[in-house]
Sequence to fold (334 residues):
Amino acid sequence: MATLVTGGAGYIGSHMVHALVDRGETVVVLDDLSTGFEAVLPDAATLVVGDIGDEVLVGGLIASRGIDAIVHFAGSIVVPESVADPLKYYLNNTVKSRALIAAAVRGGVGAFLFSSTAAVYGEPTVDAPIGETVAPAPVSPYGWSKLMTEVMLRDAAAAHGLAYTVLRYFNVAGADPKGRTGQSTPNATHLIKIACQTALGQRAKMQVFGTDYPTPDGTCLRDYIHVTDLVEAHVLALARLRAGGGNLVANCGYGRGFSVREVVEAVRRVSGVDFVAEVVDRRPGDPSALVADSGLIRRELGWVPALDDLDGIVGNALAWEAALARRNSAPGAR
Ligand code: UDP
Fold:
């Protein structure tokens, strides 16, 4: 029994690899290191540097390493980039996922866990938390590229008996509480990371994109979820798949939202730094509120989040950002 984790050297993938290794599982990481880092991986995981779209490579790994489950994180994730370069997203996220699924089917891999996104819902018109019964309607090539993979999994499962789980992430944030890994991408655009970098003086100021949304304080609401809780949901989902649980498509969020202003205040509070957050115009394509209805995942997986606390998320993110800065300024740093 061994798990193949694609994108395992990336942000969420590396947390999953640690969680599996912590549980004594055998893990093979497949990552092309285009945005991932070998340094965040535990020694006990085997890293294979390669392309998830290489069916021969993946087929060989499945056969030679005894892979019985695939957890698929690898992909491109920047929404504006997907608008500017859609074919990159359809290649990296859709075409290569198709090759990976084909290798899984051919190799007899029984369990497939896929990281999808709330972006499949597009810009919901309802203000209530979003349940899985809301019809997907992506508004970006990124969202479409992920939804297409969900559809391929559904159809391949029906035809070939592959068992799968899709988790649709809301806003993943924070870092490993033990400090072993975190969000390492140099050009990240996510709010909590940007605010933490500003608090640490790595940016002179940050921007708040729009204060005229129909929300209590005028800024957008998002469901920020600690990456460690997200990974715990994956561990439970994987166990469920291995135990023969049926196919599942579930949201992964806490079911509550914080505004951009509340996040900025939390970062100021936790860091003790009163950094500048200037108000600018809306960023195109931001829905006013994206909050998960998380009933299904709690029921199906028995998932009980342990780290649902904004200040805690921010504290872990700040600690990781500071460690990253120290690492990058060390002699010989990449
Ligand atoms: N945001 C912001 N300033 C930033 C980055 C993000 O005001 O520097 C806002 C963004 O407009 C959105 C929210 O923070 O309303 C969350 O954005 P993020 O990019 O973190 O995640 P998204 O919800 O877009 O996936």
